[in-house]
Amino acid sequence: MQARAKTKYIRMSPRKIARVLDFVRGKRVDEALDSLHFTPKIAAEPIEKTIRSAVANLGNLEEGQRLDLNEIYITEAIVEQGPTLKRFRPMSMGRAGKIRKRTAHLTIVIEDSK
């Protein structure tokens, strides 16, 4: 059975999230959570939260059954660009510099191997 979790409007560049996401894609959930917990990248936190949410969603789908994290795999992990917040900052010689504050949408799909 499959379960999905989405986290939207993460205030981080999708490129930074994708670097960490490539690290856990296709792994077992327990292995991915262990490696994310000790990863020094800031992007590991929202990815870990989204994986935990997907596991909880799978638990809700399979009511009354025990979940073994050794048998659950991350089948799909996608990061997409969200809306960009545009800000301006004063620069030298009276100019205005554009600052783009990017956001990301993260989707995790997990599946048990039963």
TL;DR of this structure?
The chain is of the alpha+beta class and 114 residues long.
> What is the 3D form?
elongated
Oligomeric state of the chains in view: single chain
Order of helices and strands: EHHHEEEE
**H/I helix tally:** 3
Strand order of the largest sheet: 1-5-2
How is this structure best described in words?
This protein is α+β, with helices and mostly antiparallel strands and 114 residues long. It contains 3 helices and 5 strands; from the N terminus they run E-H-H-H-E-E-E-E. Strand 3 (85-90) and strand 4 form a beta hairpin. Helix 2 packs antiparallel against helix 3 (44-61). The mean pLDDT is 93.
List the helices and strands and how they pair.
Elements: E1 2-10, H1 14-24, H2 29-37, H3 44-61, E2 72-81, E3 85-90, E4 96-101, E5 104-112
Antiparallel strand pairs: 1-5, 2-5, 3-4
Helix pairs in contact: 2-3
Main features:
114 residues; 5 strands; alpha+beta; two-stranded antiparallel ribbon
